[in-house]
From TrEMBL:
Residues 1-12 have a biased composition (Basic and acidic residues). Residues 1-31, 140-160 are annotated as: Disordered. This is Uncharacterized protein. It comes from Colletotrichum spinosum.
Amino acid sequence: MVDDMSWRHDACGKTQPRSLPGPEDAPSSIGTVASHVGYRQWTEQELMTRGQKICGLEGASTAELVLALLDQRLADIDEVLRQIAGRRPIFSGPENEYDMEDQDDEHIRQSHALTVQEKQRLLLANRLRRQQRVIRDAIHQHQQPQPSTPPPGSAGHAQKNQARLETLPYEIRTEVVSLCMGYDNVRDGTATKSHFISQVGLKNIQSLRLTCKGLHDAASPELLPCITVHLTEDSLSRLRQLSQNPLIARRIKCVRLALPYLSSSVAKNEQSFCFYAAWLIKGIIAYNSQKDIDEAIDPNKIRHLNSLVSQWDNLIGALSFNADGTPHTDCTMDTKWITQFNRHPLLVEGFARVKERYLEYQRLLDHGHVAEGIAEAMGRMPKVTKLCMSDMAWDHDWKTKYYLSGIFPNRESMLSLIAAPMEWGTFASLPPKLTGQPPLEILTGILPALARRGVQLDNLDIQLTAPSDLTSLTPSDAALTAAAVKDLQVFRFRMVPALFNFVRRRGRDSRISASRIWGPRPVGQMSSLNKLLDALLKSQNLKWLWLDLESLKVESCGDRPTGGGGGGGWYLPAVMKARKWPHIRKMTLSSVCLNSKLLGKFLGDGPLVIDRLKDAHVSRGTWVEALEVLREKETKSLRLETIDGASGAECNIGFNDMFFLTPPSPFCREDMINLYQYIPVDKPYLALGYIWGVVDENPLLM
């Protein structure tokens, strides 16, 4: 065994005997370096001299020096093994429990008989043997002929560089990244898909960013497919900085503009702020009392909140009010009332925050270039094709914000709630002098600004609570507004009622008179909204139209969920206008006024799916004629999934609107068609059955 350890492999792989010269010998060549361990230990000076000789070899490449050092180390290990072997041979003892199973029984008995000192000697020998194997493999690798490198500029050199991930074009790397994401790149009108990242996609991005610089640069922008902009200096500054970053700007696809605002009345005097804060918390309590709350709330916390609101009510009780419902400030009692107000730290700190935020908000509006600044930043983002605008904040959880369980975790959450920018959908029912109105001029001004910079949208989403005055929606430039959306493919426009003006009783929604914050709109206000929709509906590339005018229906039709008694005061000619929509494929219509004589031209002749026709109101023509048009279209190119409620024309008389009730939710269209043979003729769903062709007679003529 000892003799075997004194052999080495030469450059050709053959074994050669190794001599054991003393420390005075020098290496005769780079390929073979003799052992210098000997029977005595080297001095420090001898070690330094030896290192200088190896490093000072003239004409030796880095690879040759590495090979010489490895060969020297192997010779040293051989000599150490010879020294520790002594008179007894060193057995290749078991290195682990798996090797032990393969050893001969005699070797196992001998290894157990070793003394402690011999076991240590055996352990050292085994560790040196492992080093021998590793070094021999390394020497063998260094002695292998290396493939020649093509000279720079040659075809082979270019082909090799193209195979490296770092040198691939940026577009190819981004395509690799997109295959790892948790979403599609298909544009659509939903609130997910290509503009938001799933949890799986986020983890994939994080992994890709740690892979190499090429994938890091390609994956990092995917973290921001969508950016939300608020009316604050920090948010606008962040938008500007991101748009100036070429790596991030070219991957942003969607911009969401949130229009929560701040009222001057609430921010400038303590009385109005106290009234506003108390109204907000009481509204949340009332809202939750009508909801099915999933999480159990500590009764002590509820009592604490009620006690807090009672104290605020006592402050409000000392105030007098103007005819418009706003608190009146009396100079004689102002000092005393302020003293009482200062005893409530939550109100004091909340008022200070609101005042500070209002000053910043007012500076932005006074500057007058908010819409231009946003449009300029979007102009530097080549892939931005979707714009969402809303008078609500996009980045909060409604359950966390307006459910009682969401405002209890700590004092800061309560403070953040009463000092947050106001959302018009929440406070629209308060006196207008107290709440003011959101800056809708930004909404109508941003589209012309985008058109001036050549930005073309293919997806536009507008969600608003009906403002107190619809004239604020008049487009600042109708021609430029239409130019910004000439390639629009998906358009969603929703005008919904205020949040805290609904009452839920055991799962059923029924509106109370407070839902009608304003009466039917004057002709001038409806004309402003009609001009806006007319400009936004001019795209000939439209594929999906989603219209929801629920707020206008509530204002015009009274308290009945299905209408009744209304005169169709929210009819918009721009909606029923016959248009060239050769690519239209889907419609979602809710609370829309219909004209039965124009309905056929509005639907067009191409294949079309109406996934929902909810609370439609016929204000021009009759429902009999509307059903005939829908039935005729159904036999050719239309697919109507469901119809839910109806009003206007014949449906304002008696109970004819019962024929327009929604089928039970577990049933799909095909199930309902199969079940129609079991439905008596005096039961609901007949209107839908007539449209589908499974009921022969128009139910309104029965």
